[in-house]
């Protein structure tokens, strides 16, 4: 009279098994082909990653050096200001 749940489940199970068996048969034959085609692409992506990593390390090293120089300059200026303020107070006494 209508479509019953058991009929739907049986059809889905049969379809699922058919697709699974088909893939199990075809996939091992296709993987070497796709593997060989993907290898240059993966190697290219890895090379790009290495280059980006090295460039990032260089940039970070330059930034660190710049910040250390700025820190040293600021510290020297602050010490100079404190010394000049301290020297002025000593003269006033």
Features:
single chain; 93 residues; mainly alpha; elongated
Brief overview, please?
The protein is an all-alpha fold and 93 residues long. Helix content is 95%, strand content 0%. The radius of gyration is 36 Å and the shape is elongated.
What global shape is seen?
Answer: elongated
Major beta-sheet overview: none
Distance between the termini: 112 Å
Helical residue percent band: over 70%
Uncertain spans: none
Count the beta strands.
0
SSE layout:
Elements: H1 5-92
Protein name: DUF5132 domain-containing protein
Pfam families: DUF5132
Could you please describe the fold and organization of this structure?
InterPro entries: DUF5132. This is DUF5132 domain-containing protein. There is one protein chain. The protein is an all-alpha fold and 93 residues long. The protein has a domain at 36-85. The protein contains one helix and no strands. It has one helix spanning 5-92. It is elongated and about 100 Å long. The N and C termini lie far apart (112 Å).
